[in-house]
Recover the amino acids of this structure.
């Protein structure tokens, strides 16, 4: 009898150890990733990022956990891209414009060309077309940053100013304007006679309030969400640059995922990006109406601005930042 009890005890202990070991292995197999973005926690970007995290967890049966950090909590875009290479952050949800800020992704400067893309649909379709496929593959290899998907409309860039209304190209002269880190944005505003300055997005409100710069060129949704209207008087609707929100991931982390996990991330990014587009369309109208009660809204003389910029990209960037002919291919894309 004692032998039987002893044998039973041994079996119970072995079974218990097996359960503990299995649990430990399951926990060890679980993948946890940080995803950062620069937008406010009330923005369509953040809501889409949360949707992405939720759907990834569901699609992988809890194998992958995405922790979302909004509002530049993990740093600005460049900080986060650097963090991906260092291994301190795995994912970024930000505009495709910003891919050009990494060495090796310079061809994507073309996504910031003023007045080039007719609308969001035109921009996304051309970026996902065979025209861009070789450029995307080359950038992913050079930057070690993988693009999971380009999906999610954002508010087109406008112009807001503190004291000076901008109605024509001539009104840009002498304007101190905050820009993101972009050689194209710098070239555009210098051609218009303005004085562009790079300031981190998280510091922009105080820079506007303190008069470090007079103007900025984000869209109406961030202007509303970040309360820039409190320190800006005029809103000029230029719609001059568009963007597509993009799910970036460290290439090393991507390669470590199974094909099934990679598929789950892509599918979740489609759903999340579609949600952002839907929310953006709703909020664009709401934000514009709201800002009209806080600011003076101006419909500018866009032909004068376009005319002032004629030839800029061909003279300075064609064949340097992107291959010759790519600009015209995008213009002709239907």
């Amino acid at each position: 009898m004692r032998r039987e009890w002893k044998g039973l005890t041994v079996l119970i202990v072995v079974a218990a150890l097996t359960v503990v070991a299995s649990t430990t292995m399951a926990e060890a197999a679980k993948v946890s990733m940080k995803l950062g973005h620069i937008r406010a926690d009330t923005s369509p970007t953040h809501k889409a990022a949360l949707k992405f995290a939720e759907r990834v967890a569901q699609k992988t049966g809890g194998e992958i956990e995405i922790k979302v950090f909004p509002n530049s909590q993990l740093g600005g875009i460049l900080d986060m891209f650097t963090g991906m290479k260092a291994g301190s952050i795995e994912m970024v949800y930000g505009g495709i414009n910003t891919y050009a800020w990494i060495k090796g992704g310079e061809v994507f400067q073309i996504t910031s060309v003023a007045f080039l893309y007719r609308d969001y649909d035109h921009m996304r379709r051309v970026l996902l077309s065979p025209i861009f496929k070789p450029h995307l593959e080359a950038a992913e290899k050079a930057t070690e940053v993988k693009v999971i998907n380009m999906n999610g409309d954002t508010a087109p860039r406008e112009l807001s100013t503190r004291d000076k209304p901008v109605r024509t190209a001539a009104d840009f002269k002498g304007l101190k304007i905050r820009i993101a880190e972009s050689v194209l944005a710098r070239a555009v505003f210098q051609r218009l006679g303005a004085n562009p300055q790079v300031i981190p997005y998280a510091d922009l409100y105080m820079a506007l309030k303190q008069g470090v710069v007079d103007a900025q060129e984000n869209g109406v949704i961030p202007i509303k969400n970040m309360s820039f209207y409190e320190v800006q008087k005029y809103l000029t609707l230029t719609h001059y640059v568009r963007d597509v929100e993009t799910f970036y991931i460290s290439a090393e982390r991507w390669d470590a995922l199974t094909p099934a996990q990679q598929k789950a991330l892509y599918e979740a990014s489609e759903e999340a990006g579609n949600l952002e587009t839907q929310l953006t369309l709703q909020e664009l109208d709401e934000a514009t109406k709201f800002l009209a009660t806080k600011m003076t809204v101006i419909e500018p003389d866009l032909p004068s601005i376009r005319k002032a910029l004629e030839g800029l990209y061909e003279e300075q960037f064609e064949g340097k930042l992107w291959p010759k002919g790519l600009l015209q291919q995008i213009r002709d894309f239907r």
